[in-house]
């Protein structure tokens, strides 16, 4: 049954301190990062439990809107990020087809809190859905909020965060917070952006391998040139997590040069050199996004002649079982794309390469393929699927145009 093949491969479609915070335990700032992360990202995360009796309803709440009351800047950034859309229609229609075990494997990163998983189980009528009433500190829409503030910052109703820039005064809300340098370490993000060695692979390559790609780059080296996931994707601690969906971020990742080689007899070759100068991982890192190179010749009379298309990206078939091509560019490396063309000898013309980005190209193919089999889908999944397809199609954009003049 081809429609459901990709579920079996583990790939789900689709980053101040009160002195009182340290009473009764060791200083977590001195705890090794790996020890902190092992506890912080348990799989699955345990429920928060009953909030402290002294907490107000606002302090106990896990909702992003509650956090926004004091952390408005972080909330505004998060609201515009893909983290806030982690439980959109792209995963919503798939959950209609999954068992609870399959769904929880995806929710581990898309909605990791135990309370979120419980709400999804209720929505999907899964067999192990909780029977008891929803706690007051859990808003009914918490599961649909995606990767929330609490996903990263709350465990057992205690708050955690990075070392403060300014020492806060005592007596703040929710008993202050515990500090860990793990929040400034790339390994914090690797929890969701790196599969283990025995994780799902295609052609011997892990489907999620961003952290290891970063480790192999110059950005992972110590010294002034080091760039962590956070310093690049959360500049000045902004909760933005911009990536290939954002044109400005993508332009910073690459340098493009276009030249022309004369092959004689009116035959030529356009040579596009793409250097991954700014991304600390492959460009693009996953199989989902693709960057298309469109080669065109523009004549003096205004006519435009397309003479080739090439792709940057890791192309895999829709069941996610077979690699078609891998033209991703590792960090710091260059890839050359050559395209032959002919042109009039005695007329003016110029060559242009247009870079177009499809951030969800792999999803587009899967969604279209699935809609061809809509008669095999639950009725309530079809509208979500159509919405998901419209979202990824609407995310396409033109990145840049580079011109090379005719050879002298």
UniProtKB/TrEMBL annotation:
<protein>
    <submittedName>
        <fullName>Multiheme c-type cytochrome</fullName>
    </submittedName>
</protein>
<dbReference type="Pfam" id="PF13435">
    <property type="entry name" value="Cytochrome_C554"/>
</dbReference>
<feature type="signal peptide">
    <location>
        <begin position="1"/>
        <end position="21"/>
    </location>
</feature>
<dbReference type="InterPro" id="IPR036280">
    <property type="entry name" value="Multihaem_cyt_sf"/>
</dbReference>
<feature type="domain" description="Cytochrome c-552/4">
    <location>
        <begin position="66"/>
        <end position="124"/>
    </location>
</feature>
<keyword id="KW-0732">Signal</keyword>
<dbReference type="InterPro" id="IPR023155">
    <property type="entry name" value="Cyt_c-552/4"/>
</dbReference>
């Amino acid at each position: 049954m081809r429609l459901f093949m990709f579920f079996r491969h583990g790939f789900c479609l689709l980053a101040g301190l009160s002195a009182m915070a340290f009473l009764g335990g060791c200083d977590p700032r001195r705890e090794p990062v790996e020890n902190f992360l092992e506890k912080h990202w348990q799989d699955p995360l345990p429920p928060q439990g009953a909030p402290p009796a002294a907490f107000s309803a606002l302090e106990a709440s896990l909702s992003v809107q509650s956090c926004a009351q004091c952390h408005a800047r972080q909330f505004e950034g998060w609201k515009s990020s893909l983290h806030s859309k982690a439980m959109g229609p792209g995963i919503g229609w798939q959950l209609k087809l999954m068992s609870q075990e399959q769904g929880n494997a995806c929710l581990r990163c898309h909605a990791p809190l135990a309370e979120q998983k419980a709400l999804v189980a209720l929505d999907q009528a899964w067999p192990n859905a909780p029977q008891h009433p929803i706690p007051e500190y859990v808003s009914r829409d918490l599961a649909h909020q995606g990767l929330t503030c609490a996903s990263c910052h709350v465990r057992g109703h205690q708050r955690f965060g990075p070392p403060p820039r300014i020492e806060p005064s005592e007596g703040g809300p929710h008993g202050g917070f515990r500090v860990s340098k793990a929040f400034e370490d790339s390994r914090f993000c690797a929890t969701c952006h790196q599969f283990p060695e025995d994780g799902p692979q295609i052609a011997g390559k892990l489907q999620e391998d961003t952290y290891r790609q970063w480790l192999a780059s110059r950005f992972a080296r110590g010294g002034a040139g080091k760039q962590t996931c956070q310093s690049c994707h959360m500049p000045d601690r902004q909760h933005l997590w911009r990536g290939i969906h954002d044109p400005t971020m993508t332009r910073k990742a690459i340098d493009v040069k276009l030249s022309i080689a004369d092959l004689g007899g009116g035959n030529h070759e356009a040579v596009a050199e793409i250097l991954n100068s700014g991304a600390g991982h492959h460009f693009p890192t996953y199989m989902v996004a693709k960057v298309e190179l469109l080669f065109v010749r523009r004549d003096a009379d205004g006519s435009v002649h397309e003479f080739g298309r090439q792709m940057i990206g890791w192309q895999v078939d829709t069941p996610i079982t077979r690699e078609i091509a891998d033209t991703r560019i590792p960090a710091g490396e260059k890839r050359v794309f050559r395209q032959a063309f002919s042109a009039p000898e005695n007329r003016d013309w110029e060559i242009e390469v247009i870079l177009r980005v499809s951030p969800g190209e792999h999803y587009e193919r899967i969604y279209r393929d699935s809609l061809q089999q809509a008669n095999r889908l639950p009725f309530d999944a079809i509208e979500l699927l159509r919405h998901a397809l419209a979202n990824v199609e609407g995310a396409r954009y033109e990145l840049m145009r580079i011109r090379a003049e005719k050879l002298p």
